[in-house]
Amino acid sequence: MMEFLYFPEDKTEYIPAIIQLVIFMIGAAVVMYFFYRVSKKEEKKFNEQYQEKSFDDKE
What we know:
75% helix, mainly alpha, transmembrane helix, 0% strand, Preprotein translocase subunit YajC, rod-shaped, membrane
């Protein structure tokens, strides 16, 4: 009934898949960290830019 599923008898065939999964998970974590850092820099720049304008308007 489920001939399309393949579960190998030799479990060492799972090792390449696990290595690929770990590599992609580490890559995803690095990219998320990079986006987080860039976002914080942009937020800081945005706050500095519009904080100056709000102080100029009040005077």
